[in-house]
Design goal:
By secondary structure, the protein is an all-beta fold. Helix content is 0%, strand content 51%. The chain has no helices and eleven strands. The strands form two sheets. Strands 2, 4, 5, 6, 9, 10 and 11 form a seven-stranded mixed sheet that branches. The chain has a four-stranded antiparallel sheet with strand order 1-3-8-7, with no helix packed on it. It starts with a strand and ends with a strand.
Length: 119
């Protein structure tokens, strides 16, 4: 299993920026990503990155969010800019060790989440 701990959430004004981090430890992960869930809404994929640095982004965040992971796959970063109140949600770091990446894949390991509030 992979242990994931998110940090960096907080409150920001619309148009502002925020960077989320996820510290990962444990077994090898081929795919890591960020998901979010707002109250009353379904969880949605925000960004994902695989072992070849191929990236996936949700339609609503393309051009505003960027996902990075270090070479050791121990630190996953989500840089968010141009934040909008609709981006307010609990953001979760997730990982999977199996082949394949992207939001349609099953992520087996999840962090506890970090709250992002945009006003």
């Amino acid at each position: 299993h992979v242990q994931l701990v998110e940090s960096g959430g907080g409150s920001v004004q619309a148009g502002g920026s925020l960077t989320l981090s996820c510290a990962a430890s444990g077994s090898v992960r081929n795919c890591m990503g960020w998901f979010r869930q707002a109250p009353g809404k379904e969880r949605e994929g925000v960004a994902a990155i695989d072992a070849y640095s191929r990236r996936w982004y949700g339609d609503s965040v393309k051009g505003r969010f960027t996902i990075f992971v270090d070479t050791g796959k121990t630190n996953l970063t989500l840089r968010m800019s141009g934040l909008d109140p609709d981006d307010s949600a609990m953001y979760y770091c997730a990982a999977r060790s199996f082949v394949g990446c992207g939001f349609s894949r099953i992520f087996t390991d999840w962090g506890q989440g970090t709250q992002v509030t945009v006003s």
